């Protein structure tokens, strides 16, 4: 039992009745650790601890919150290399990218340390004589955070830091596939002096822990990042329980390449957006929409670049793309590769590689149409559909023809096309001559349609979700 990495509840490291191995997807013989799998009872205990701790944390000095978050950021910065290596082993990202994600977590905690002492309100003149009006923001109370496996430290950080800065107490439920980074975050917050019960970690299955967080009356809000299917279920549960909900779900993000694009720049942007991180990003460029005038030249350049990508052990410096996160995820990817051929696409790449672990070569589905399943359903792997269109107007129409609306991009040398695309794209984030994936921590993140529901994440706007607005009237006589 001493070798099991435990849940963190009420300031104590507590074992659960079950545990699971965490193994490296690039090398299944590499056992990262054995991690507790909590259940509904553990979630209930964490909720009770959070409820008891929150009033002192939320009503106390914002300087206390700022100091804890700043120290946490300092510790994450100091441990970035260690966390980056852990992340690369448990999720499969390249070491450089994994270390960058660890550094991003530190930046997020430092940013929200400042936000903890910036809690602006308003004082307004009433329309009635002798009355003053104040508008302020207060913490919600206890917040449940449910995070995915593809960004196992950045997303827990960008949810946890603003929730704590606003004065809430937190229960973090990380993805079952990648508990290690969240476990290290709990260690960091304990070392940073976070009071017992203010931050709690409950690892395990979402079907048990997530359900307990959604239904428990003492949880005021849920912030979830994951699949659309699960997100819709959480939305229904939160609506029934009348609690605040924030969802970040899927994407089928378009990258438009116009006849006026620099094709080398466009190829690099699409290569990065579609295939880096093994395509396991909700902001990945999964639909490449290319004008007919440059389609063939673009396709040739992209296939040539794809074949030069170096796949392998993410801990090796020359590796550009690591493994798919799990056997089940790889099986789903390969099903879509077969489906693309059945739907009439010319499939370039996409095979399972003869390497230890779950490796798949990048796949390009040439001659795809926007009504094909491979162009409408999120695959969440290194697979992109290449769609030929006649002109800019058709490209924009195809780009917007999706139930999702997270990120979109355009590669063009025309300021007019760039401006028109920014204005008319039905996405929460728009990139011009940049990959659709890759965002800053100090600006809002989120989308439209089936991609997102509730307030934006990251930046100052994240504080809107984690606070409640109060309007106070005072008769001054």
From TrEMBL:
Active site residues according to the UniProt entry: 248
Descriptive protein name: Aldehyde dehydrogenase family protein
Pfam families attached to this UniProt entry: Aldedh
Keyword Oxidoreductase recorded: yes
Keywords, ordered alphabetically: Oxidoreductase
N-terminal signal peptide: none
Family recorded in the similarity comment: Belongs to the aldehyde dehydrogenase family.
